[in-house]
Amino acid sequence: MEADTFRENPFHLLNVILTSSQSDYTAQVQHHDLDAVFEQQVQNAGNKRLLRWLLKKTRATVASREATRLDRGLHFSFFRTMLHQLGARLVEEDLLNDPRDIFCFTLEELDVWRKGCSPNQDLRGLAAYRKQQLQEWQQQDPAERLFVNGSVYANRIAEKRREFDPAAQQLSGTGCSDGVVTAPAVIVRNPSADTDIKGRILVSETTDPGWVFLMVISAGLVSERGSLLSHTAIIGRELGIPTIVGVKNATRSIQNGESITINGKTGDIQIHRSAEAVTA
Question: How many other CB atoms are there within 10 angstroms of residue 84's CB atom?
């Protein structure tokens, strides 16, 4: 919610346009005709009428689900505008230094402040503390699960994390959007950074709606987290580009600029490394 939109920072949009126009790399994607596959399955089925009815209902419900997601996005934008206006109001009242500091607080904290019963009246101090926390968190490698015994913060159990092989040439995950593509990989951790992604495979820990402007010009998507219904998977299917999610340590196993081949149907990833890189 705190990421700038194209309306607030048009330079992001200009950067996408310039990157798209300057890059001359075009990936070759091999797609399978899923509609033809479905029709063949219908022809081979014993009860064709039932299968066609189920297929029709499935397509209708998927369309309804996506319409719901769109409605949620519209409400999200409205709520985000309200928070920006509230931040500007607090700056006018000399309670904050920057309108964007409004994103340092929880909704509960803003609510009790509005009611005049907040236990902490120093909004500037709390915002500074949260910013310091954010800087510390950004330096950490978050675990997928936390194991504790009793109080979460006081009795955390040390987890034995598996080491990954930096010389691995094959990775696997969950295939979410059919197709096979071979292209250079680009490791992206910040979607706002100046990144040439056109015709290349975007490799990330995860994505959210703020990444769409990069995803639409990429040749494929690889994400460390996600499922068949995650944001990365849905956008990949809508764009019709090979997409794989749930690839452990993808951003560390794949080097920036390495040529990789991803199969969006099987979830297999082949890293094309030189012999020197494998033995290093």
Answer: 16
